[in-house]
Structure formats: C-alpha cells, structure tokens
Amino acid sequence: MKSFFNVQDLGNLDTALTEALEVKKNRFGYQELGKNKTLLMIFFNNSLRTRLSTQKAAMNLGMNVIVLDVNAGAWKLETERGVIMDGDKSEHLLEAIPVMGSYCDLIGVRSFAGLSNREYDYAETIVNQFVKYSGRPVFAMETATVHPLQAFADLITIHEKWEELKSNPATAPTKKRPKVVLTWAPHCKALPQAVPNSFAEWMNAADVDLVITHPKGYELDPKFAGNATIEYDQKKALEDADFVYAKNWSCPGVTNPEDYGKIINKDMSWTIDTEHMSWTNNGYFMHCLPVRRGLIVTDDVIESNHSLVIPEAANREISAEVVIKRMLESL
Ligand code: CP
Prior knowledge:
This protein is of the alpha/beta class. It contains twelve helices and twelve strands. The strands form three sheets. A five-stranded parallel β-sheet has the order 1-7-6-2-3, with helices on both faces. It has a five-stranded parallel β-sheet with strand order 10-9-8-11-12. A two-stranded parallel sheet has the order 4-5. Helix 8 (222-225) links the parallel strand 9 (209-213) and strand 10 (229-230). It catalyses: N(2)-succinyl-L-ornithine + carbamoyl phosphate = N(2)-succinyl-L-citrulline + phosphate + H(+).
C-alpha cells in the first residue's frame, strides 16, 4: 500500500477486519517489519489520539518514530507557488517535503481544512504535495476532507460490538445488519467535514445500513454520502438504530457553496441525550473524540455503559498498526 486516504486503499474490508483482529491479538508479532525503518509524523494541527495511537502502532511494529509539530518549532511553511516570500514564512513546503522524505521511510500527515476555500480543501492540496514530492508512502492522519484511520477504528469497534451481541442469545439481534446512524450535533466552532466524510464513506462500504441525519444545508459531499439514506427528521432517523455516531460538521457547501465552512445551525435539540438514545434499539453511542459535552452529547449518555468512545479510541492503535504494517510490507 503506497498511500492511505480512502476506504478503497485498504482493499477488501472483510480481509482488513480479519487482519485488524489478528493484529489486536498479536500487536508485537510483526516487529521485524519495522526494524531500522522510520516513520515521520507531521502535524499541522493539534492531536491527542492520532499522535499517541499512531506512534504506539509504529513502535509495536519495531519502527523508529520522528514527530514534527509544524507550528511548534519548525520554520513557518509557505504552501503557495508564485509568492514573494517576504513575510513570516521562511521555508517553502516544496523544499521541506523532499527534505523530510529523506529522513524517513513512511510519512503520516495531519493537515485540516482551512474552511475558507472549498475547491482548495476538497482538492487535498497540502497532502497531495506530500504524495507528489516526498518519494515516500503517505497516509492521512486527518486531512482536509478525510480521516480514514478514525473511520477504520470505528468500523472495527462496530464489528466487535455486533459480533459480541450476536454471540449472546440474550442480546442476539433479529436483523442481519446493524442500523448505523450518523447524526449531526451542534457546536460552538466551525469544524471540518473530514470525520463525517470518512465515516460515511467507510460505512457505505461496510455491511451495515447507513442513515445520515442533519439539518437542511449540511448535506455531505455525494462522493462520501454515497447511497446512505438521508433523513432530515432526527427522531425518525434514530428509531431502531443500533449505533449512533454523533459529530458536528460545518456547512459542506454542497447545496449553498457560499456557506462553505460556516455554522448555519445551532439547534440544541440535536444534542444527543438519554431521550434521543431511548428512540434507538438500545443503541450504542459513538464519537471520535475530542467531544464537547453539553453540545454534542450529555454527560449521562457519554458516561453510560452504552458509550463506545473509549474502545473506539483504543482501536485507533489497531487501525494505525494495520495501515503501517501494510505500508511496510509494500516497501
Ligand atoms: N479522533 C482524533 O483524531 O483525535 P485527535 O484529534 O486527538 O487526534
């Protein structure tokens, strides 16, 4: 695997899930693969889970890891061509990238959407430069439009819980596939669409029934929403849900391009509380974290025994290890 941005980069999802479960049982079993190999993790934005879980995954595989926080100690980077660099940016990304590539074997990049220019963000302008100029396999640690390590961890978490429910006669579901609902929830800041984009993309490819619910104007890009059922009535969407994946995102600008990246709704009736969860099929709450309590979800729901937020975060180590392992195997 030379790059990892979208679900198709992983190939067959059942095979990937099987590999994830094997890696989880034997996470130190592939150390020879990473011996004398170096992962460079580049962060243009903050992180807790991605930083720790990806570094842990690489260490499980026997790799050396270098972490660069671009905004904490590196030269400020110019990303545009054709500019006179007489401002505060001392180095151009087009020199910095091949230099960084010369110190490592694999590169992970985190670079969020700027949310001011849809075309620039959805062209994945920054990470594509890493792909083009680094000479190394590159994987997304959340880019302008996708967060595939998160979506893969979410899929592993849903798969594990569904198998657990199936294995117990007292909880065995009567339906063949779980109903998974991705629901928008309110927030005080304009957030990118990377997490809901990838979650929708991956759930469309998985063996689940996907429903997406949000206020009008928050339609995700069709290339990610795919064949999901779109339901604007949140209560109707949540009925019979087995998994509730809450997330805020700013306006994707699909129906109104001029609203791209804006907050166009703050309706607090969309916050997931115990009443919302009571509409579900005894469903499980999910969120990628970090989460703002009181806006996205109430304390009662996130602290309940039907909250999967901690296993989801723990599975980030596994999704990262599978991806890095496959990249090492392809070197
Ligand atoms: N879910 C996630 O990517 O968390 P961080 O932003 O803390 O890495």
